[in-house]
Amino acid sequence: MVDTVIVENDAPPTSAVSWPAIIAGGFVAAAFTLLLLALGAGLGFSVVSPWRGTPDITTTKAAMVGGIYMAVTAVMASALGGYITGRLRVRWLRSPADEVYFRDTAHGLLCWAFATVMGAALLASAATVIGGGAAAGAAQGAAQRADAADPLLDRLFRPNYAALTGGTGQAAAGVFAAGRDLAADRGVARRMLSGLHGDLSADDRSYLAEMVSARTGLPPADAQARVAAIENEAHVAADTARRVAMQLAFWTVAALFLGALAASLAATEGGALRDDRKFLTTH
User: Fold this and answer.
1) Is the pLDDT of residue 123 over 60?
2) Measured between alpha carbons, how far is 41 from 38 in angstroms, rounded to an integer?
3) Cβ contacts of residue 117 below 8 Å, gap of 6+?
4) Which of 30, 109, 131, 252 could make an SS bond with 119 (beta carbons 3.0 to 4.6 A apart)?
5) What pTM was estimated for this model as a whole?
6) Cα separations (Å) of 213 from 79, 157, 253?
C-alpha cells in the first residue's frame, strides 16, 4: 500500500524592491521638475525687463524667491513621482502591514534618489535646450561672468577729459608716460581688486591711486577717493555673491529634504490605494 502525499506549491517569492516602478516614478518626477523649472523661467522673464530698473528686487531677494520656488518644485515633482511608484509597484501579499508600509516608504525614497541622481545630467542638457541657449550661449555667459569686474574698472579709469593734456583726451588717457598701455594697468587693478581678502594695503591703495591719477588726470586726493569708492563696491559685490551662494545652498538642501519627504509619503499613499488597505480597514 503506497501513501500519496500531495504538496501544495508555494507561490514564488516576490522581490521586496520593485525597480520598474521606481524607475518609472523617477522619470515622471524628473520630467515634471523640468516642466516646473521651464514655467519658473518663463514667469521670471515675464516680470523682469532689461529696459527698466527693478529697485525693489535685490539679488538676495531674487535668490530667496528662486529658492522657495525650487523647494515647491521639489515637493510637487517628488510627490507625483512617489505616488506613481506606489501605484505601480507589485503586491506583497504575504507581508505584514507594517512591512508593506516600510517598503512603500522606501520605494518613495528610492524614487526620489533615482530622480535626483540620474536626473541631474538629463535635466541639465534638457534645460539648455528649453532655455534656447546652445553651448555657445553657455560659453558666452561664462565669459560675461569672467568680465564681471569690467564695470568697476571702467569707473576706476574714467578719464577727466577737461584736465588731460597732450592731444585728445583719449590719446592722453590711453598711453602712460612710462610706455605702458591701458590694458596692462587694468589687468593690475583687476588682480588687486579680485584678490581682496579684506581691505587693500596702504601701499596697494597708494599705488592704485597714483595709477588712476596718471591715467585720468584727477588730482591725487580725488584719485584716492575714487579708489576707496571702487574698493567699497568690490567689497559689497563679493559679500552679495557670498550671501546669494549661501542662500541657494541652504535652499537646495531644504528642497532635497522636502522632496525626499514628499516622495516617501506619496508612495505610502499610492501603495495603500494599490492594495485597497483603506477599504479593508473600514469593512
Assistant:
1) no
2) 5
3) none
4) 30
5) 0.70
6) 62, 9, 48
